[in-house]
Design goal:
A hairpin with a 5-residue loop joins strand 8 and strand 9. This protein has 4 helices and 26 strands. By secondary structure, it is mainly beta.
Length: 351
């Protein structure tokens, strides 16, 4: 449920202090290590998590379309879709466009590893790297290129509206707002008590953003388990979300790791650790499950953890097409699964 920004209640404030304390106690190098390790959770906690991994079938309102689409990536990191519904996947110092059957259409080599991609309203592809942004035209030619405003940065998500490009910087824990010439005009999400902005908490290298039809940028605050709405002037208008291993909450130290907007204004989220892809409405109310561990073919140990050291599994990425189909990029197996609303769920929703 949306929470309008006003006076912060004492219970929320206590949670914020604890979250900041946890984040402050972890070194930056460890924060952004996403290699797999054995979980150190106690057996009784692991058992509880296994229970939550079994999702009530009545809550699963999507079904997979066809078999997983294999890619030729060793390390895929991000997915987006063009206006024709083709997939563009980033990783391995390249971009590859695939049709819906998984056939490669073209490939673009990049000067360094990409970290995020998104199309702008003109059909240009914006590619984020650790501290560089490139804008490529539909033919793959470089139109613009600029560097991040700080020498050390990690851009993990890119979004754009008519006048701006937004880059989520996980190391600096804020969103840079650029004009279309690459000049920084604002920064969003930095801690500012006078504006009732508690600051972004990022225990691991996942920090996603998305533009929205109302003109407010949606920013995932993963350490606080929130999705926040910001104006381009940097005002935080509201937020929604909460921590929890139950199906409506976001589990672990830092979730969700990915966010996409549905055609009806709802949201798709992805979690790591206890891997789940879910749908919420425009106000942040839980709608249903796209896929859980079983539907995603999860064979790794479930690691719903309290610190980044305990949970270093890769996070999946998500994208949505114009028809509302949901594309899940499995970054462990480098495959794409496509889900659409199942007929029984659609019939219930129409009643």
């Amino acid at each position: 449920m949306k929470k309008r920004i006003g006076k912060i209640q004492s219970g929320v404030l206590t949670g914020l202090v604890l979250a900041v304390a946890i984040g402050a106690g972890v070194a930056a190098f460890l924060l952004f290590d996403t290699s797999g390790t054995k979980s150190t959770l106690p057996p009784e906690y692991k058992y509880e998590i296994e229970q939550y991994a079994k999702i009530d079938p009545a809550l699963i309102i999507y079904e997979q379309v066809g078999d997983p689409i294999e890619t030729d990536f060793d390390t895929a990191c991000a997915i987006t879709l063009d206006d024709a519904g083709n997939m563009v996947i980033a990783g391995d110092s390249k971009l590859v466009k695939y049709d819906l059957a998984g056939k490669p259409l073209n490939e673009i080599e990049l000067p360094k590893e990409p970290t995020c991609i998104e199309f702008d309203l003109d059909g240009n592809l914006i590619v984020g790297m650790s501290n560089v942004i490139m804008i490529l035209d539909p033919q793959g030619n470089t139109v613009q290129e600029w560097s991040a405003p700080t020498a050390v940065s990690l851009q993990t998500s890119i979004a754009a509206d008519k006048d701006h490009v937004f880059a989520a910087d996980a190391l600096n824990k804020l969103v840079w707002c650029y004009d279309r010439e690459g000049n920084v005009v604002n920064k969003l999400g930095a801690k500012d008590p006078d504006r009732n902005i508690p600051g972004i908490v990022i225990p691991s290298a996942y920090f996603d953003i998305a533009t929205y039809p109302d003109g407010l940028l949606r920013v995932v605050n993963p350490g606080r388990h929130w999705i926040e709405a910001y104006t381009t002037d940097g005002d935080r208008e509201w937020y929604w979300g909460r921590a929890g291993v139950d199906i409506e909450g976001f589990s672990g130290c830092c979730n969700p790791v990915a966010l996409a907007v549905l055609p009806d204004g709802g949201f798709v989220t992805a979690e790591k650790g206890l891997v789940r892809v879910k749908v919420y409405d425009a106000d942040g109310e839980f709608v249903g499950v796209v896929a859980g561990p079983d539907q995603l073919g999860w064979i790794e140990p479930l690691r719903v953890c309290k610190t980044p050291e305990e949970c270093k599994a890769k996070g999946f990425d998500v994208a949505v097409d114009k028809a509302g189909r949901i594309y899940v990029l499995d970054t462990l197996r480098n495959v794409v699964r496509i889900f659409e609303r199942n007929k029984s769920a659609a019939a219930r929703a129409a009643r």
